[in-house]
Specification:
Chain A contains 16 helices and 18 strands. Chain A is α/β, with parallel strands linked by helices. In chain A, strands 1, 2, 3, 4, 5, 16, 17 and 18 form an eight-stranded mixed β-sheet that branches. In chain A, strands 9-10-13-14-15 form a five-stranded parallel β-sheet. In chain A, strand 6, helix 2 and strand 7 form a beta-alpha-beta unit. Chain B is α/β, with parallel strands linked by helices. Chain B contains four helices and eight strands. Chain C has 333 residues and is of the alpha/beta class. Chain C is built from twelve helices and nine strands. In chain C, the strands form two sheets. Chain C has a five-stranded parallel β-sheet with strand order 7-6-5-8-9. Classes of the chains: A alpha/beta (439), B alpha/beta (189), C alpha/beta (333). Chains B and C meet through helix 3 and strand 7 of B and helix 1 and helix 12 of C.
């Protein structure tokens, strides 16, 4: 049994309860024991408490990234569950939800159980597996949804590709309606996307790459809003990239449709102009879009149209990414840069308060999954992230724990160095500097 | 504005020929060319760009004065025949080569301002041979300053000037430089 | 060097002065091509590799001829659609070129940006001989050369570009070059073949071919390749010829002395009528000859390590007895 833990003197940010004040955080038995004087006196007087001085740092509920590709089983050359969770805790994430487009896909109980077992063995970040919607992600036959949820799946999605067939989508929404889980949609019309590799616009015209129009995403978002309205099921739109999609989600919410959305850091910090050098580290799906789309996404995060912030962490090998733009695979890594990117994109320019940012990376994301979590309330799972919003770092892909080095942020100067990630009361990650403060 | 040629800071040390001296040298070369050729028939003058070309025109004008014959004058740009494309700092400007007549069976007199290492003349010879098959090729220069790196010798020389390699010989022509004269200078580093 | 760079990847990257410098240099090479021995020793001892990942007869022959007339050694690599993934091929190609000590690389590739990849990974100068639907800079330059030759200038020319602009690298290079040199460019073609926000190039988008041709000095007709689009972008060649084909009738709207151009190979009777292709306005064969001269100029300029030439000046300068006369060795050979 690990000894109790006290994070001393940090700035406690718990958006779920509107708390923002300097206090000690007490942790015992893997749970939050309380803040400051509210922690049991018996605990506070114990001699075996591990005390970490975190004055000057932010102490918040453990971050969760609900859109991560861990690649295991089947594509261990890109990432494994182990390297993925190492990357997660280094980036401040105490939990990740992993996508089912592995090889084979997570479409049956043994595979869901395998992911959970591996994650438990490694014991760093929590891993919530997301199951496929259809067998083999082939878009034809629904998976045994209730069995997979029973096995631990927290949502279903065919991410990597869309649920193209509206009838399948309708049935999936009907079958999940009473289960409390969302159907996560990779919103993309495959015909409109065609063989496109980047956003369709002036830059694609200029540099001669085939475009993916924004409507490739938005028509599916619109269709799914109607399906959600008709079925009463819940659709979560993954990696929203386009202004038109934002508008549809906003209208859907206003009409009481159960639709949520997320976006990823690169859509806020980069536009299609970044693709002009043909670097495959700027190739992802959906693609980096226009300035106008970027502004709309920021606005949607601010007004709550987009509920949470994810990464779409999609590692690939260097060999795959070291190619011409057309041949390189879609996807970039994000776990180890996300917090800094979001601080830079949203908090530094004053779009969002630090507390609201944490909300969208913790409790807001758990709410999307329909799960409790993302708070420092006494009795909650002791998942905690400690970071210094003032301390900056330079992104060096060579230092990543992830196997993927494919980042467009190489060399960027980002705020928000992660000092410590606590998962279930255990320190899963800490920087050398924070280690020095251990008593 | 610099041309493609490398331009260095040069301090002028002494004038070797003034305008009058230069004009006399040109007149003498014109006479020698005609004398050696036994008349002006079958002659073609080919000036090496840039200063060789106006010099060739002047020689032709002299020949017209005392022989009453119009000797054809062409311009030769040897840039494409240089052997140092990859080592020079400035990309040379490629000018046109323009020889107005067929040179087969003719006596072509190459004209240049200064004969130094001989590499320019080597390039000009290569180019001339690509352009046709002259009966003979001769070389006329205003100044021969020595330091040959290739076995090339001028047939007509205005003035032999012993120099050191640190020196430069500058032939100035009204057509290009607004005044005539030949001087010797030193490269400043 | 061209525009301070070791590579020629696109006309977008060049200034008007860079482009004019290339065209002026090409004029000298055009004269060389008319000599009894149409060959100069400028690139003796250098090796040029022609890497064609996509089949092309004309462009490859034109480059090869240009290289030979500059006395370079040439090696050719013609890739077929092999089973190796394209990306790997490009990586391995770059390494092989590096190992073979090649000075100039001419690359044609189906992927836009592939020459940029090679340029980043190689010390050799890279010439884009057409990348995907991006640019074909030497075609753009030879078109500019031909227009200047025919019309005496580029600035102020009214140029109509007709056809599938979206998939045309020729169109992009033409547009960049023409706009930079001050021409007025109008494009026309099926709306499904007009790329997004095309007007941001600075071109006018005409509603019809007739409107585009009206009063033009030059009509540049793009090759249509419907088989590539599998009918999704335009119904048929027959329909295309009817609506967008340049015919003698349509050409009447242009200036009487209009210049008609086509990058080849032509689909006679589709984008260009037979009598237009062979008519008195057509300069299509001159384009081919000029292409060799323009490519010689580009190869020559990139082979030199010095800065690009500046406009010749009549300002008196000291020419240190022709720097050429300095003893030289070429360490890169």
């Amino acid at each position: 049994m690990t000894s109790p833990l006290c994070l001393r003197g940090g700035r406690i940010l718990d958006p779920a309860r509107g708390i923002d004040r300097a206090q000690d955080l007490w942790i015992d038995q893997g749970k939050v024991a309380g803040l400051g004087e509210d922690a049991p006196a018996a605990l506070r007087s114990r001699k075996d408490v591990q005390i970490v001085d975190v004055r000057g740092a932010v102490v918040c509920p453990g971050l969760i990234d609900i859109h991560v590709h861990l690649r295991e089983p089947g594509q261990e050359e890109k990432e494994t569950i182990e390297t993925g969770v190492r990357a997660a805790v280094r980036g401040g994430f105490a939990a990740v939800a992993c996508m089912p487009n592995t090889s084979p896909p997570l479409d049956d109980r043994p595979r869901i159980e395998y992911v959970r077992r591996r994650a438990a063995e490694i014991g760093l970040a929590r891993v919530f597996p997301i199951a496929a919607v259809t067998v083999g992600q082939q878009g034809v036959e629904l998976v045994e949804i209730e069995d997979l949820v029973d096995a631990g799946a927290v949502a279903i999605t065919d991410d990597g590709k869309p649920v193209r067939n509206a009838e399948i989508m309708r049935r999936a929404l009907e079958l999940t309606r009473e289960l409390g889980i969302p159907v996560i949609q990779h919103a993309e019309d495959p015909d409109l996307k065609g063989t496109g590799v980047m956003h369709e616009g002036w830059v694609s015209t200029r540099i001669g790459l085939k475009g993916i129009p924004d409507i490739a995403e938005s028509v599916i978002v619109a269709r799914d809003a109607l399906l959600a309205e008709r079925t009463g099921g819940r659709v979560h739109v993954a990696h929203v990239s386009a202004a038109r999609s934002v508008q549809i989600i906003r209208q859907a919410k206003a009409r009481g449709i159960r639709m949520t959305g997320e976006t990823a850091p690169h859509y806020l910090l980069l536009t299609d102009e970044a693709v002009a050098g043909y670097s495959p580290s700027t190739k992802m799906n959906p693609p980096l879009r226009s300035e106008r789309d970027r502004d709309a996404l920021i606005e949607a995060i601010v007004d709550g149209t987009l509920d949470c912030l994810a990464t779409d962490h999609a590692p690939h090998t260097d060999i795959e990414k070291d190619a011409d733009f057309d041949s390189a695979p879609f996807g970039i890594v994000g776990l180890e840069t996300a917090l800094g990117c979001y601080l830079k994109a949203l908090v530094e320019p004053g779009h969002l308060s630090l507390s609201d940012l944490i909300e969208r990376m913790t409790v807001g994301a758990y709410r999307v999954l329909g799960r409790p979590g993302g708070t420092l309330e006494a009795g909650a799972e002791a998942d905690v992230t400690v970071f210094d919003p003032e301390s900056r770092f330079t992104v060096r892909a060579s230092e990543f724990e992830s196997k993927g080095r494919n980042t467009p942020f190489e060399g960027w100067d980002l705020p928000g160095r992660v000092l410590m990630t606590v998962v279930g009361g255990r320190i899963a990650y800490q920087t050398a500097t924070s280690e020095a403060t251990l008593r | 504005m610099p041309t493609g040629e490398s331009v260095e800071a040069v301090r002028e040390k002494a004038e070797i020929l003034d305008g009058e001296g230069l004009r006399r040298a040109i007149t003498r070369i014109a006479h020698e060319i005609v004398e050696k050729n036994g008349g002006a028939e079958g002659l073609v003058l080919a000036g090496i760009r840039r200063r060789g070309y106006p010099l060739a025109q002047r020689i032709a004008a002299k020949i017209r004065e005392f022989e009453g014959v119009d000797v054809p004058v062409g311009a030769l740009d040897i840039t494409l025949y240089r052997d140092d494309l990859q080592t020079i700092d400035h990309q040379p400007v490629v000018g046109p080569t323009d020889i107005p007549v067929d040179i087969d069976g003719k006596v072509v007199v190459l004209v240049d301002d200064v004969l130094y290492t001989g590499r320019t003349v080597r390039a000009a010879l290569d180019e001339l041979i690509d352009l046709g098959r002259p009966r003979a090729i001769r070389l006329a220069v205003i100044v021969d300053r020595g330091h040959r790196e290739i076995p090339i010798r001028a047939d007509f020389v205005g003035k032999n000037v012993p120099t050191s390699k640190r020196e430069v010989v500058m032939v100035k022509l009204e057509e290009i430089d607004r005044h005539d004269g030949v001087s010797i200078g030193e490269v400043l580093t | 060097m061209i525009g301070g760079k070791k590579d020629l990847l696109g006309l977008e990257d060049l200034s008007a002065q860079d482009i004019t410098g290339i065209l002026d240099t090409a004029r000298t090479f055009r004269e060389v091509l008319d000599r009894p021995i149409p060959k100069v020793p400028s690139l003796r001892g250098m090796t040029a590799a022609n890497l064609f990942f996509e089949p092309s007869t004309r462009t490859r022959l034109s480059f090869e001829l240009a290289e030979k007339r500059l006395s370079a050694d040439t090696v050719n690599f013609q890739a077929s659609g092999s089973s190796v993934s394209k990306g790997e091929t490009l990586r391995d190609t770059a390494r092989n070129i590096e190992a073979m000590g090649i000075h100039l690389v001419v690359v044609r590739h189906q992927a836009s940006g592939a020459p940029h990849y090679l340029a980043r990974h190689l010390d050799a100068g890279v010439i884009n001989a057409g990348d995907g639907t991006h640019e074909h800079p030497t075609q753009g330059l030879l078109d500019l050369y031909t227009m200047r030759d025919q019309r005496g200038r580029i600035a102020g020319l009214k140029v109509a570009i007709i056809g599938d602009v979206m998939h045309s690298r020729v169109a992009r290079s033409n547009i960049w070059g023409l706009i930079k040199l001050g021409a007025e460019v109008t494009v026309a073609g099926p709306p499904t073949m007009m790329p997004a926000e095309v007007e941001r190039f600075g071109v006018r988008v005409a509603k019809s071919v007739d409107e585009a041709i009206e009063g033009s000095d030059v009509v540049n007709i793009l090759r249509i390749q419907l088989e590539r689009q599998r009918g999704a972008l335009y119904p048929s060649l027959r329909e295309y010829a009817r609506v967008y084909g340049v015919t003698r009738e349509r050409l009447r709207r242009a200036r009487p002395d209009v210049t008609v151009m086509h990058p080849g190979p032509m689909n006679r009777g589709v984008e260009i009528a037979q009598d237009v292709a062979d008519g008195e306005h057509s300069v299509i064969l001159q384009q081919v000859t000029n292409g060799v001269a323009v490519r010689m100029a580009v190869l020559y300029l990139l082979a030199g390590r010095g800065e690009s030439p500046e406009a010749p000046s009549e300002t008196p300068t000291v020419e240190a007895n022709k720097s050429h006369d300095e003893p030289t060795l070429s360490p890169r050979r």
